[in-house]
Amino acid sequence: MDASFGKKEKLKSQKLIGKLFTEGSSLTVFPIKLIYLETPCQEVSIKAAVTVPKKNFKSAVHRNRIKRLLRESYRLNKDIVFNNTQENFAFLFLYLGKEIPAFADLESKMKLLLEKFNARIHEKTNA
To answer: What's one Pfam family here (predicted)?
Structure first.
């Protein structure tokens, strides 16, 4: 598994993003919320997007910084999910905090969140 976050892995479909908000399930490990939805087959098993609310961060510079940190922490830890699931999913990472996080904190929370997601998926498939 390569540790890149290429074009094919990015979630860009407005239709699918809308569906995520209406039908998706969510998990939270503060300050990150993961909204996910099982999707029909696609070229990669997981497509992901990140978002930071304008309400909490008026400055685009700060929003973009947090989005870069979120994407990087996902890129480094996505193998936790890729190696443990056969289904296809759409992920949306939503940043809930009120201040700009340190990368180390964000990365540890991302690991916890992805492990929590794995636990939930395995629970569902074994039930």
So the answer is: Ribonuclease_P
